[in-house]
Amino acid sequence: MRFNHLIPPRTLGLLLALGFTFAFPAFCGSNTPTPPGRRDKLIEMSKGPCYGNCPVFTLTILENGLASYKGERNTDRLGTYVKKLDKSQMERLRREFKNANLFQYRDVYSGRIPDVQSVTITYYEGDRKKTISGKEVRPNAVKWLESILDQVANDPEGWVLKEAPQDDKPDYLIPNELVVELSEGITPEEWAENYIEADMIAERQFGDTGYWIFSFDDSLVAPDEMLEKVRTDENVLSAEFNKKQYDNLPEKKDGDDKQTGNAEKKTDKQQ
Asked: Using alpha carbons only, what angle is made at residue 176 by residues 174 and 179, rounded to the nearest 5 degrees?
């Protein structure tokens, strides 16, 4: 920039200040300007657990070609890894997703086989976003995109560890107990039998709410894996790990409900 030496210093200072004010938003938070949308997500794929050794991970690809891989279980890369995809990889991903036209499909495809891994793919196109979740029953175009993303995720070259895995859970969590909200008409004891491989037991209900505490043997099924399975259960509205502060919540009194009474008797016997 050339300065006009005939402009008084005060006026020149004011002009520079105004110029910095208008330019500031483009530089805020960074030493170099970041073009709009360069840090936005383009594609994300998450793979949940199964009864076997399915790799559990989340692959995220940004518009600028930066990819992150967060490995949670049954994978050689545990923790968060990052790499930069080259131009040809990004061009292929954009082309394949555009050709697939994911917006024509349903959001959720219910599976018929409990032991099949659940897969969720999210695609961002401008202001639109499309998420498709399912197991073995999904459109072939969606399965094809999954295979392409698997190629990116399974490529051993170029990944750099960004964050090591965190195994420790907060002290207030009870990892072998879940607080579950079941769909209307579902009997807790009968529902727990679906998870007999984890020795699931309906412990008790919170007051007059629809929430139940279920315990399981975490030596048979890992806590995170159990939580993921329950959350994807079609008869479950919500699920989370039990928390120690929940012990202060009231139980449902005897006579309120036959099912609750049975659950409380079972808890008393165990105590």
From this structure: 70
Domain assignment present for residue 131? The answer is: yes
Distances, alpha carbon 11 to alpha carbons 7, 22, 24, 149, in Å? 7, 17, 20, 57
Q: Which long-range CB contacts under 8 A does 244-249 form with residues at least 24 apart?
A: 244/171, 244/172, 244/173, 244/174, 245/172, 246/179, 246/206, 246/213, 249/206, 249/207
126: left (phi over 0), alpha (psi -120 to 50) or beta: left
Tens digit of each residue's pLDDT (9 = 90 or more) over 14-36: 444 444 344 434 333 333 333 44
Chosen domain end from 140, 163, 186: 163
Please state whether the predicted TM-score (pTM) of the whole model is above 0.70. Answer: no
| CATH code of residue 63 | 3.30.1560.10
Are 115 and 49 in contact by the 8 Å Cβ rule? The answer is: no
Q: Are 232 and 188 in contact (CB under 8 A)?
A: no
Q: What is the DSSP letter of 198?
A: G
How distant is the alpha carbon of residue 127 from its chain centre?
Answer: 21
- What is the sign, positive or negative, of the torsion defined by CA atoms of 241, 247, 250, 251? positive
CB neighbourhood size of 182 (10 A): 20
Q: Tell me, yes or no, whether 155 and 220 share the same domain.
A: no
Rounded CA-CA distance 55/23 in Å is 46
Per-residue tokens: 102: 């994911």
Provide the pLDDT confidence category of residue 44 given band limits of 50, 70 and 90: very high
Count up the domains in the chain and report the number: 2
Structural domain including 198 reads 173-270
